[in-house]
Every structure is written in structure tokens, then in C-alpha cells.
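Page 42, continued from yesterday. The earlier attempt failed because a stray header line got pasted into the input along with the sequence. Redoing it now with the clean sequence only.
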Amino acid sequence: MAFTSSSELHQAHQEKIKQVFGEVSKVVVGQNYMVNRLLVGLFTNGHVLLEGVPGLAKTLTISTLAKVLHLDFQRIQFTPDLLPADLIGTMIYNQKDGKFEVKKGPIFANIILADEINRSPAKVQSALLEAMQEKQVTIGETTFKLDRPFLVLATQNPVDQEGTYQLPEAQVDRFMMKVFVNYPTKEEELEIMRRISNMQFGYEVNTILTKEDIFAIREEVNKVKISESLERYIIELVTATRKPKEYKLDHEAQYIQFGASPRASINLNLSAKAVAYMDGRDYVLPEDIKEVALDVMNHRILLNYEAEADNVKTADIVKALLQKVPIGK
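This time it went through. C-alpha cells are written below.
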């Protein structure tokens, strides 16, 4: 279904988005789901947390996407000895002029890859938090606005937890989505193995979207229509995480410690619009909300120790929500 206002600009942007996937696939085999979610974040001004075991091309995908979008890219390896100044910059003394000067850190880019974000202590997390939320950083007594678009794409390894710091809930909540990156299929892994064994890497990618395109697409996503009944459906889904027994989720209620925050409602709305837009529609369907529900809510529903003991995951809770919370309740 095409856009009702099928202007040439809309059509051009739709075509360019398809080309973005094509360019990334020159370098990265598979992982279209991850690319889709990264674009959803980009088009709705939302940060994305990626979780997956090492070797799934998370870093490669993000760096390749930055090239295709012609955006400034910085990778920051988070380590236990990382300091806030290593992230945002610091004041240095210029002996020649006898003055202090600002030396900006790697945070001054369009796309930031925060690799293994949970390996740094609270002070570094706090510095990143200001950048994520306020789109600005403070060095000394001066506050600097960050260049737009500004997107933090963070990775964390779910396996190796030695020497890691629990991310503060306030920071986790500021990520629009938490996306689990899965293993490639057999056919995809076969292609990866062949490419590497035949030394077929280092492909050149073309720039597809400019900053102007990205800002224009954001405006178009913002104009995607969502009915009042679907708006209320979003609210019901989020409320059900806080008051599960009212929605006949008695079994799930025993495992939920805290429900999702209002940011879940906001981001379900935004991401559903983006998914509809990338599917070529100017209106949201219930399926769009259901498609993004896990990514938006799986880091916002806090489970208790009973859930861990019974091996209940957040995905199980979200699946039950989608089954039992009716549309237009």
C-alpha cells in the first residue's frame, strides 16, 4: 500500500531506504532485523541498545550503516578504567597562549557506538546519560550542543558478566529499544564463511541518505496517522504491565516487580509509526504495534527473583500481554 500523498519526495525516500538495506548487505550478511531497528531509532530520534553474544557483526553493521548514511561515526570501547573526560572531552592548558582550551571527546559525532557499555562505572554512565537525554555535554563551565542527528547505539554482551556494572534503570529506560541480536541462519553463516575464506571483504559502500534526507524522513514519520483506538491500545498494553491482574494476567503478575514507564507508551507510538512508514504506509496497523512491543518493553519490565527461578523471561510476559490485552478494550 503506497502513501496516499504519493509525492515524488515520499517515493524517493522509500526507494532510498530500500537501497540502504542493499548497501549494508554488501558488507554484512543477514541482520536485516537489526538494520531495521537501527533505522527506526534514527528516524524517531531514539537510542538503541543491542544485546548479543560476540561475533554477530553488531559493530560492523553500525559502522557500515554510518558510512551509508554519510554520518560522523565514533566507536568508544567502554572499559572499567574509562573516565568521563575520555568520553566527552576535557580542558587542556595551552602553554603558548597561557589559556585553557576545550579538547572535545569522541561523543561529538552523529552516531556513537558504545561498545560493551556495561563495562564502565557510574560516572561514565552519568556523562553519557546527559548526552543521550539533553543532546548536550558540559566541559568545564561551558555547555556544547551536540550535532544533529545524534544517536547512541550501545552493545552489551549477555554472557561474560565478569567485570561489568549493572546499567542504572534510569539509563536503560532512555534507550528507545533493546534489541536482541540472534545468530545467523545456516545459509547466512555459510555465506559469511565463504566470504571470509575467499578474502571477500572490504567492500566499498555508497552514500544513500544525507542529513537532509534523514530530517525530511523524520517529518514524514511524524505525519503517519494512528487512530485513537490504537493509541488507547498502546496505553492498555503499558498499563497491563503495571496492573496485570486487572487484565487477567494472574500467572504473569507473580513475576513482575515493576511495570513499564510512560516512555514505553511514547516509544511504542513512535516506533510503530516508523515501522508503518518503512512498510510504505501512512497509517499504523495493530500489527505494527505488536511488531515493536518486545523491543520497546523488554528492558522496561522488571522481573523478580521468582521469574529468574522459574526461568521466565520478559519476552514471555510481553507475549502474554499481546495475547490477552484486546484492541479497543
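Notes: Residues 1-5 have pLDDT under 50 and may be disordered.
Reminder to self: strip header lines before submitting.
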